[in-house]
Design a protein that fits this description.
Order of helices and strands of chain A: HHEHHEEHHEEHEEHHEEHEEH
Number of helices of chain A: 11
Number of domains of chain A: 2
Helix content of chain A: 40-55%
Number of strands of chain A: 11
Shape of chain A: globular
Largest interface: A-B, 65 and 65 residues
Radius of gyration of chain A: 18 Å
Strand content of chain A: 15-25%
Strand order of the largest sheet of chain A: 1-3-2
Oligomer: homodimer
DNA sequence: TTCATAGTTCGATCGTAACCGAAGCATCGC
DNA sequence: GCGATGCTTCGGTTACGATCGAACTATGAA
């Protein structure tokens, strides 16, 4: 009754389908304009505007105006984690939006989760890093090993730079499609960035899925093998 | 729009103040009757009944009828984690139910979080276990060491028994009042149970707070010291 | 059997919030 | 300056859901 923080407010914010859709879309990590968000929410811009104002007042979103556009993003990583964790929970209970099935196979294979790689490929990458001794997994926590730091340098990722940020280097994030952990944190972000930079993969316009090129696919599978 | 699980449903379930209050109360871990839950929700039994039916249909609650009572509990630990994580999130944004202040000091000192100890004492216990080398912390994951297993046996906790359950032994759980981790999982549960069994502490009737006796307080602080 | 307690179902009321059309600002391109 | 585009604010409609009184079912006690 009177004890503790107020869950109901944020629950209600997420509880509206239009808002939930917008938040889910923003989990894709890229900033979206009010009009785009109205599209994903299936509502008019006027309605979207009031929704966005509420979400911002609730601290879930921030906006950045740029010219005559307003770009909305999730307020911070904590929001992204909350949304993803709710997705995981919902998926586990069968609260799927439109029934099961290998829906959107591209999305299950590889997609972006705020700023890092998720889906089948995300899970595979973490599994492989653990198997090769680059990352230590204890319970549900992750830590980079010295070997891992060396290996990463070989593929052009300087871990020292990443450590300077306040953000944790490794963090595990639960995947709603695979129901297994994948790598988040600044290292997860750096790895995905490097794949994009190398041209191995690219983001798609309207979806959260990540498309690997044939060559990128080959390189990725070679770099992150899984033993049979 | 069409991709992924449906967050809005569970958001809406949690989004109603009466339901949120009931869920928060059930985070206390003990089963409550419909009438009791109506009390904490501040509504009549009829209304509570429909709310409870919705929560059950949504997979958040289960009920067990016993005589003419119906006891409701959270469906499983995942629900408890979801609620606690939302509380942590809400607390971080200042979404407090009734303004700040050292509200309910007893609750901040020690309270139950589903089935384990949270609050100041919960955080202290985990800190101490890590400092003494009983638990390894890697990232945000926890693992019991051999030394820890021995130490626990000395205070009457047989870790072997706990391992048999499918539930993870150690798990870290984020505290909304302290904003730091405390120990959950079957070990967290076992530790709290042992404190209650020993008579060091007892649960209170209507609140989630845990009251330590003077003697229990002394023993607890001696058992889990923190270096200055 | 009858009465009391616990809970659900029904029906009706009421408030709130989602929604859109239209109008109002702001910014850009010209 | 002008019109076009992106977004917000206003006003009014509508629909859904939370709420409770009252009636109904189930269990237990006497």
């Amino acid at each position: 009754m009177k004890e503790g923080p107020d869950i109901a407010q944020i629950g209600a914010l997420i509880g509206d389908p239009a808002r939930a859709n917008m938040l889910a879309a923003l989990t894709g990590g890229r900033a979206l304009t009010a009009t785009e968000l109205a599209g994903v929410g299936g509502i008019t811009v006027q309605t979207a505007s009031t929704h966005l104002a509420k979400l911002e007042a609730g601290g879930l979103l921030t906006q950045r105006k740029q010219g005559r556009h307003r770009y909305f993003t999730l307020a911070d990583e904590a929001v992204a984690r909350l949304i993803e964790s709710m997705m995981g929970f919902a998926a586990g209970r069968g609260h799927l939006r439109h029934q099961p099935g290998p829906k959107e196979p591209a999305l299950r294979k590889a997609r972006i989760c705020y700023d890092h790689l998720a889906g089948d490929y995300g899970v595979r990458m973490l599994d492989s890093l653990i198997a090769s001794g680059s990352i230590d997994a204890v319970g549900d926590g992750l830590a980079l090993t010295e070997k891992g730091e060396g290996d990463l340098k070989c593929i052009g990722i300087n871990v020292g730079d990443l450590r300077s940020s306040r953000r944790p280097l490794c963090r595990s994030c639960l995947d709603w499609s695979e129901r297994r952990a994948h790598l988040a944190g600044s290292l997860g972000k750096a790895l995905l960035s490097s794949f994009l930079d190398k041209g191995w993969a690219r983001r798609t316009a309207e979806s959260r899925s990540i498309l690997f090129s044939p060559e990128g696919d080959r390189q990725f599978l070679k770099l992150f093998p899984v033993d049979p």
